[in-house]
Structure formats: structure tokens, C-alpha cells
Amino acid sequence: MPKKVKKPKKLKKKKDKLIKKKLIVKKKSKKVIKKQIKSKHKPVKVKMGGKYTPQVLRGMKDILPEEVKTWDYLLKKTTDLAEAYGFKKIMVPVLEEQMLFIKSTGLTSDIVEKQMYQFTDRSGTKVVMRPEFTPSIVRAYIEQGMFNLSQPVKLFCFGPLFRYERPQAGRYRQLHQFNLEILGSEKASIDAQIILFSQALFNTLGIQTAIQVNSLGCPECRKPYRSKLVSYFRLKQKWLCPDCQRRLKSNPLRILDCQNSGCKDLISQAPQLVDDLCPECQSHFVKVLEYLDEANVIYKLNPYLVRGLDYYTRTVFEIWPERPEVKEQKQKKEENEQEGEDKKEKEIIVAPGPQSALGGGGRYDTLVESLGGRPSPAIGVAYGLERIIQEIKIQKVKIPKTRGPQIFLAQIGEAACRRALKLFEDLRQQGIKVVENLGRDSLKAQMEMANKLGVKLTLILGQQEVLDKTIIIRDMHTGNQEVVDQGKIAKELKKRLA
Ligand code: HAM
After folding, report:
1. What is the CATH number of domain 407-497?
2. What angle do CA 130, 162, 369 make, to 5 degrees?
3. Closest ligand 1 atom, CA of 381?
């Protein structure tokens, strides 16, 4: 056996110091590793004795069949529009590596700072339940080599996301977004197209909205603006909320996003980034606005719109509901403000509330490269589906009713029930939509259900009909009943419903 060589004392001391500072990790012995693996795979011990009342988690909700109709309508409209604009559907996992969001959404964003549902999985990987789609789409774009496709690549997706926020109206811990991304182009026309899409979507849905637009410039033009902003807010530091006092050091631009009323007053006098844009960013922004004007997009400039995620560059925008009462208040406010002032070409507005943006997005020209991909400028937008559904209700938007079932199949007795089970399947295979309730025996209850559904015809199958191989067709409007051969029923129904 080779003799174990002892490490010099000096070297060992240095190593211990580094371990203490967490700059290097102490090598674990085989015994410790074995123990850790064993404990990871231990079955969870739960006391089963006590009373347990299951309930949905705070900030999450069940979406019941009645409401699902509105969701289906919304998703159909949005998907149709996305496809008409040339977007292709992509599906990405709900779980992603934690580092993906740290490196993209950003360490100073609220999402990474305090909202991620994160845990270490059984193999020791730190994972996050996706809080937004953009980082996952960028990861897929790089990992699946989508930069080799014809550019730009236009993708859309929808699904649940998770943010540990304080729940309130329109703010959930499990939320759903419809998300669009265009990767591989920095052209201003693309920015305008994605904003035009937003206008078209809400017009199609019949929801009144206002679109706010701003430019955040590039990291270069943000540097001098950042210093200006720090100097401005440093003089007023004591009036800032504790969060903004912290942001002054970590990410002063995020102060502009604060909804605290004290901070808002200070923000309204703060220097504006548009005045500091470099010539390239300025020209890009002017082009975006020209394209928007050309396409008749109605927008408002909001020089303080920054968005809460770290990856944005140049164009950013948000879509806000334009409810009648908010419109009136805003008009009054503007009239007061504009007294004696020259009317500005585009108005500057104040947001109506922290939780009501229906959607938002912007450019992220450096994100693909910062995650290891080829330089690929990109832009995207996401709409909050819960908030759109809420707005559909508030603005009393009428959802067109889908055509309900036309035929009900009722049965009386065991033999008829057995026959009905097969008949239902035969009719379905021939493309005839039938509703049944094989779980109920009483004809009265079944007829009540048929009435409630408003069907045109009810098929009644009793003991006698089973023996005769016939079936009764009842016209629910006239009450007339006719006995028909079971073999001819499909043909007969098609004729009557034509
Ligand atoms: P976001 O502004 O974080 O952007 O979210 C977009 C929309 O999702 C919001 O405008 C809102 O309608 C909805 N939303 C956000 N949080 C909640 C919540 N807790 N409950 C209900 N709805 C919520 C993004 O997620 C970016 N990834 C958008 C994007 C795509 N930027 C570029 N590409």
C-alpha cells in the first residue's frame, strides 16, 4: 500500500481559509456522499392520523368549466391572430435551471429577488418553476440551433407561470400568459409589428386599451442617464421608499417603476432617458414611431416606462385597459395640467394602477449573446390571460355563444342503458354529436336535462324499443314523437338537423 503523503501545514491552513470564505468547496469523503444519497432517497414520513381539509393554494385558482369557455374563446382568438401574423407555436418545460433566470430576468428584478418558486431537485440541481417565458424561449433558440433557420424566427406559446407575489385582484401566484417572441432582427419594423399585433388583438377582442411606448436605449446611452438619475434621486433620497433607497444603489432605473405615491411624485420630475439616447438608439426609436403612425397604431409616449426585467434594451411598451371612468379622470387631470401650457404633440400619462397592465414587452438585443448564443437582437410581448378575462368582464365584452348540443339520448331500464351505451358510440363515430346521462335512471330527470340544454331532438330508448330494435324521436319544440328503426336513426337525424 502506498503511504499517504501528509500535506504541509501551511498549505492546509490556506485551504481552510478559502473554504471558510466559500471560495472553494471542501471535498466530501465517500462516507459523507453515501450518507447524503441515502438521506435524499428516504421515503417522506407523514403522520396520517389528523383531519385534513384539502384547499387550493393561496394565489392559485381552479378554472371551472363555465369559465373555461371564455378561456377557450380567448386562446382561439389569440392563436388565430398569432398564426395570421406568421408566428409558430412552441412548447417549453415548466421547470428550468435556476441560473437561466438569474442570468436573464436579472438579479435586481423583483422576480429573481423575491418571487421565484425554486428548489433543489433529487439530483441536486437548482430548478425554478418558470416565472416568465422569454428566458426559456431564448434558451431553446440557442440550444436547438434556431439561429440556423431563416431569420427572424417568430414563436408563440402560452401556459402557466409561477410568481410568489402578494395575491390581489389580477395578481396571482399561478398566472397564465400568451407570449410572442421575434428573434434575429433589430429592424424597427419588427418592433412596430409586435405593437400593432397588440392593438389588433385587443380590437379583435373588443377590449378598450391604451398602449404606452418608451425607449430604454442601449447599455451605452444608459450609462450617462444612470448617473443623472442617481444625482437627482440622491438629493431626494430621504423621501424615497425603503425599496427605492436600495434600488438607488443596485438599479436606479427601477425607481421609475415604483408605485409608491411619494416616489411617484419625485419620478414625475426626474430626468428622462429619451433626452440621453445615443444617435443610433434615437434613430431606431424615431423609426419605430414612424412605422406605428404609418400603421395607424394609437399609442402614448411614457418616458418613465422602464419595465421590471433586466434584459430590456431600446423599445419597451405596455398595454393598459382604458376603462370609461379612468378615461374621464385622466381627461380632467390633463385639462387642468394643460391650462396655459402649449399642447404637446403626444400626451404623457400616469398609469391607473399597479396590477392592471394587460400585457407588456420590449426589445432584448443582448440577451441571446449573454446566454452564449450568436448575437441575435430580439423583441417580444406577453399578455396576462387572467387580466384579460377580468377585463372582458369589467368592460362587459360579449362572448359569442358556441352552438350547444342538438340531440339528447335518454334511456329507461338496464337493457336500454346497455343499448344506449353502444348507440351513443355508433352515432359519435358517424359524426353526430349526442349528449347523454347514463348515470341517471329516471326519465323525468333526463328530460329536464334535455330541456335545460335546449336540444332540438331527444331520442328515447325503453324496454319495448330495445326488443323492437326501434327508438322514439321527440321534437322538443312541438312535442311530436315518432318511432324510427334503430338502423335508420343516423340517416334520420342528419336529415332533421340539416
Ligand atoms: P411581465 O410584464 O412580467 O413581462 O408580464 C407580462 C404580463 O403578464 C403583465 O402585463 C400582466 O398582464 C401579466 N402578469 C404578470 N404578473 C402577473 C401576476 N402575478 N398575475 C397575473 N398576471 C400577471 C414578461 O413576463 C415578459 N417575459 C414579457 C416579454 C416577452 N418581454 C419580451 N418578451
Report:
1. 3.40.50.800
2. 30
3. 30
